[in-house]
Specification:
3 strands; globular; alpha+beta; 3-stranded antiparallel sheet; 141 residues; 13% strand; Arc Repressor Mutant, subunit A; 48% helix
Length: 141
């Protein structure tokens, strides 16, 4: 039998730059999009484009889901029973209109509680001390 190579054949992993604000903004926006979709649908049933506009308006542009991002989330929420979807004619166009279900309202309440807990924790985080660029704290004296 031949010897096996110890070289990994898995694709190279990209290193995440945790100092890049775009990384954190993307992570936060991705997490919040489901939350804000549920939030805007508690007001009234809406079609996808109106949901995206309402989320962008509600968050003052902080979270602006694209069509490519919002429709898979709407489908996921509908499949989970958090939303209903029905076809309607809106402004002369056939649209799929989404509405929050009781399960969706319960999910929104749980999400609000969870995000409020995170917000309280964030308020208690002291600001990072200003130090020389590139300085590393290894935890050793």
């Amino acid at each position: 039998m031949g010897s096996r190579s110890s070289v990994s054949r898995s694709p190279a992993r990209r290193t995440v730059d945790y100092t890049d604000r775009a990384y954190w903004n993307g992570l936060i926006k991705m997490s919040l999009s489901r939350f804000f979709i549920l939030c805007v649908l508690q007001r009234r049933p809406m079609h996808g484009y109106a949901i995206a506009r309402a989320v962008a308006s509600t968050t003052r542009g902080c979270c602006s889901p694209t069509a490519g991002a919002i429709y898979p989330v709407l489908q996921e929420l509908a499949q989970g029973g958090y939303l209903t979807a029905r076809n309607e004619v809106v402004g002369g166009r056939r649209r799929r209109v989404y509405a929050l279900t009781d399960r969706g309202r319960a999910a929104l309440q749980v999400a609000i509680e969870a995000w409020m807990e995170v917000a309280r924790c964030l308020q208690q985080v002291p600001p990072a001390p200003a130090g020389p660029a590139g300085a590393e704290d290894t935890g050793h004296a």
